[in-house]
């Protein structure tokens, strides 16, 4: 998104868009690009995309958003916010049949706040002592009475587990099929350019640190590393950067409910 309400134009976003399209083509994805959407148009696009039958033919889905934003949501061209969680509501396993049980990767390039991360000095930590007597003393202070409820609780859990297994065995013996289910919010990896409350850095010529970092890491490691490992490397890649003068830092972040390792295998 280039223009966003009363906020400054996102100069450099064209470089990000070109970088991402080249990367996705190398990963053998079909690419659609949408520019400058209002908050209402974002909602309509996400809903329409989640209902497309074409997703049944493909193995995974990637959604990338380039815009202004806050901790509460991403910004449309009208200046209104769309909560980030809306994306998962549209594409979760309950509401998006075509992508049910398939990896859904969401990449969000936006600020999550107004603070600039000035970083902290990197100092070598003193070596930990060989023993930690204060911890040992705390363990010695625990009485038998303190530990008893925990033992009873564990015993109760064991009993419940036994009942569950017996019921499962009985159902199988009767020939009754068991309904296999997926968690509604499984199979997502959502990556953010920064962490809550902080801005995301953007170069007006080369694009954002986050998107350029993704391109760099994927170019080196996508042939051998899985998605979670790749985005971990992106975090490390970005954390090494800092602006000239003020030395502003940034670190990206991600959350994953993927159930399996996801590999891209570009060029295969």
Automatic annotation (TrEMBL):
<dbReference type="InterPro" id="IPR015917">
    <property type="entry name" value="Pept_C14A"/>
</dbReference>
<feature type="domain" description="Caspase family p20">
    <location>
        <begin position="1"/>
        <end position="115"/>
    </location>
</feature>
<feature type="domain" description="Caspase family p10">
    <location>
        <begin position="178"/>
        <end position="266"/>
    </location>
</feature>
<dbReference type="GO" id="GO:0006508">
    <property type="term" value="P:proteolysis"/>
</dbReference>
<dbReference type="InterPro" id="IPR011600">
    <property type="entry name" value="Pept_C14_caspase"/>
</dbReference>
<dbReference type="InterPro" id="IPR029030">
    <property type="entry name" value="Caspase-like_dom_sf"/>
</dbReference>
<dbReference type="InterPro" id="IPR002138">
    <property type="entry name" value="Pept_C14_p10"/>
</dbReference>
<keyword id="KW-0378">Hydrolase</keyword>
<comment type="similarity">
    <text>Belongs to the peptidase C14A family.</text>
</comment>
<dbReference type="InterPro" id="IPR001309">
    <property type="entry name" value="Pept_C14_p20"/>
</dbReference>
<dbReference type="InterPro" id="IPR016129">
    <property type="entry name" value="Caspase_his_AS"/>
</dbReference>
<dbReference type="Pfam" id="PF00656">
    <property type="entry name" value="Peptidase_C14"/>
</dbReference>
<dbReference type="GO" id="GO:0006915">
    <property type="term" value="P:apoptotic process"/>
</dbReference>
<dbReference type="GO" id="GO:0004197">
    <property type="term" value="F:cysteine-type endopeptidase activity"/>
</dbReference>
<keyword id="KW-0645">Protease</keyword>
<protein>
    <submittedName>
        <fullName>Caspase-2-like</fullName>
    </submittedName>
</protein>
<keyword id="KW-0053">Apoptosis</keyword>
<dbReference type="InterPro" id="IPR002398">
    <property type="entry name" value="Pept_C14"/>
</dbReference>
């Amino acid at each position: 998104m280039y223009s966003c309400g009363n906020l400054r134009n996102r100069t450099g976003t064209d470089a990000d868009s070109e970088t991402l399209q080249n990367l996705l083509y190398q990963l053998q994805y079909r690419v659609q690009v949408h520019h400058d959407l209002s908050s209402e148009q974002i909602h309509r696009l996400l809903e329409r995309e989640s209902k497309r039958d074409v997703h049944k033919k493909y193995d995974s889905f990637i959604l990338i958003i380039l815009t202004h934003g806050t901790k509460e949501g991403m910004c449309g061209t009208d200046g209104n916010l769309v909560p980030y969680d809306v994306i998962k509501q549209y594409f979760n396993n309950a509401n998006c049949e075509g992508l049910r049980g398939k990896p859904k990767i969401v990449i969000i390039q936006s600020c999550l706040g107004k603070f600039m991360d000035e970083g902290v000095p990197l100092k070598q930590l003193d070596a930990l002592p060989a023993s930690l007597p204060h911890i040992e003393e705390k363990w010695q202070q625990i009485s038998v009475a303190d530990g008893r409820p925990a033992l009873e609780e564990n015993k109760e859990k064991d009993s419940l587990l036994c009942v569950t297994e017996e019921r499962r065995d009985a159902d199988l013996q009767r020939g009754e099929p068991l309904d296999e289910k997926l968690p509604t919010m499984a199979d997502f990896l959502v990556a953010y350019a920064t962490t809550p409350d902080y801005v995301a850095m953007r170069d007006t010529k080369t694009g954002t640190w986050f998107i350029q970092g993704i391109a760099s890491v994927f170019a080196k490691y996508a042939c051998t590393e899985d998605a979670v490992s790749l985005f971990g490397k992106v975090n490390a890649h970005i954390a090494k950067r800092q602006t000239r003068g003020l030395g502003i830092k940034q670190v990206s972040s991600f959350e994953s409910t993927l159930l399996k390792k996801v590999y891209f295998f570009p060029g295969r």
